Amino acid sequence: MNRLKPVNQPGDIPAVYRDTPISLLLEYHNLERQFDSYTNAALLVGMCMDHRKHLHIPDNFSYIIRAGGANLRYSEFKVSYAIAVGGVRAIALIGHNHCGMVNLVARQNLFIDGLVENAGWDKEWAEEHFRHFAPMFEIGNEVDFTLSEAKRLRLRYPKIAVAPLLYLVEDNRLYLIDEGTSVGSRPS
After folding, report:
1. Residues 169-188: tens digit of each pLDDT
2. Average pLDDT over every residue of 133-154
3. What secondary structure letter does DSSP report for 72?
4. According to the CATH classification, is domain 4-100+141-177 in 3.90.850.10?
5. Which residues touch 125 (CB under 8 Å, ≥6 apart)?
6. pLDDT digits (tens, 9 = 90+) for 73-114
7. Cα atoms found within 13 Å of the Cα of residue 93, Cβ hemisphere only
8. Residue ranges per structural domain of the chain
9. C-beta of residue 175 within 8 angstroms of C-beta of residue 5
């Protein structure tokens, strides 16, 4: 987690994001900026479906796609819609620590038993379901996955600003992920 940059004041926001919806997101959520009024979304937020996360943002400020691990690979049509029809020009990709999509194999029995007990599934169906889908949704490491997903989205949508962020569940704050020269480096 030493690659996280806190945003405790407006000056902590990198110049590349200043005066953008990404800066506004950080100011609303972390800095308690007074809400502006919106009739159209300014931003697309891609974040995990985890119930422990809640963004402090104004109504109508953003589209939000929630998917396990903030993995938007299987939501790409929705991303395209928000850009093409919704007119958003920025994406905040928000991973979080203690994500359930990390090390899914460790939760295999819990997953299978839960489907059998809670949903009434046959054990063999539950096992096959896990074997088929777990590799698609395993993210590895929250920070590295968020960076790689940001890079993928930048390549797919070259005119769209994509900011990789991490939400810490302990303090409910957003942190910038230091991209340095890693796989998710910002475009020039």
Report:
1. 999 999 999 998 544 444 43
2. 95
3. -
4. no
5. 115
6. 999 999 999 999 999 999 999 999 998 999 999 999 999 999
7. 28
8. 4-100+141-177, 103-138
9. yes
